[in-house]
Amino acid sequence: QVQLVESGGGLVQAGGSLRLSCAASGSIFNIYAMGWYRQAPGKQRELVARITSGRTTNYADSVKGRFTISRDNAKNTVYLQMNSLKPEDTAVYYCAADRWGRGEWGIWGQGTQVTVSS
After folding, report:
1. 57-100: pLDDT as tens digits
2. Which of 110, 78, 91 is nearest to 10 (CA)?
């Protein structure tokens, strides 16, 4: 079973940037989709960005044009570049894997906190 470990979270001022990394303990080459979710206090977890093995990407409307997801299969790592951060981006960010492309995000990391100050 692949395990996921996120890093790169922290405190940043509004307008700043962060890059999150998600390191997998095994190969992600055959994993259909990797994604980043986030959960803010009192809110439901939401899908922020998703990338398939064919490099197709999808983004939540709230982050389009500001966030970029990428995957490096050779390093078994997925990234989320976050630019022009806003206070409403504050949340715990989770990396997740949908192994078979069925929308079943069955593998999760422990999360990394992102806090954007105004």
Report:
1. 999 999 999 999 999 999 999 999 999 999 999 999 999 999 99
2. 91
CB 28 within 8 A of CB 2: yes
Burial of 102 (0-12, 13-18, 19+ CB in 10 A): exposed
What is the distance between the alpha carbons of residues 95 and 27, in angstroms, rounded to a whole number? 15
| Nearest-angstrom CA–CA distance, 97 and 21 | 14
| Of 12, 15, 28, 26, the residue nearest 93 (C-alpha) | 12
Give Cβ neighbours of residue 5 (< 8 Å, ≥ 6 apart).
22, 23, 25, 109, 110
- Which residue in 115, 43, 105, 50 sits closest to 80, CA to CA? 50
